[in-house]
Design goal:
The chain contains five helices and nine strands. It is of the alpha+beta class.
């Protein structure tokens, strides 16, 4: 009987990891987010409660990433995001990593402290950006060009530090 319980537990964990992390509740209204169209405006808050609007980032390539500290695939992609962010230092690039953690800033800061990870992290009070971008799970990312046009939507974890990806971002900066 114990073996059966252990096998069921292992199977459940494996399914969750393969499927990605879903939010606890579905979004009631979803705006249509299309590639090659203007990215919808959003406002999120830094961990020090400074608002960040997409419109103020015009002229920069933006990686908008929705994630959570409790999500294994999110944690899997964070090291590559950190490397991408480091490779883009001094370039017209802005990473906006929006946490959907219900515990907000304390959960995020605690996660960064214990994991050693660090991202330009933001919160989404009221879940407005989540609704605007129609997030159905995490991680989900959006690449927005320097003119505010949606270039790509990426669902699931991604190797953000590959030479091809860095070259792609640099191409968007020209």
């Amino acid at each position: 009987m114990k073996r059966l319980v252990v096998y069921c537990l292992i199977l459940t964990v494996a399914v969750l990891i393969v499927a990605g992390c879903k939010k606890k509740e579905e979004v009631a209204s979803v705006a249509e987010v299309n590639e090659k169209k203007p990215a919808p405006e959003f406002t999120v808050n830094s961990l020090t409660n400074v608002p960040q609007k997409l419109s103020t980032l015009k002229g920069k390539v933006v990686l908008l990433n929705f994630w959570a500290t409790w999500c294994p695939p999110c944690r899997e992609e964070i090291p590559s995001m950190m490397k991408l962010n480091s490779a883009m230092t001094g370039k017209p690039f802005q990473m906006v990593a929006v946490s959907i953690d219900e515990g907000g800033v304390p959960d995020i800061e605690s996660f960064f402290k214990t994991s050693g990870y660090s991202l330009p992290a933001y919160t989404d009070p009221g879940g407005v950006a989540v609704k605007t971008y129609g997030i159905t799970g995490v991680p989900e990312s959006f690449i927005i060009d320097k003119n505010g046009i949606m270039v790509k939507k990426v669902i699931g974890p991604f190797a953000w530090d590959s030479p091809e990806t860095i070259s792609f971002f640099e191409g968007l900066m020209k």
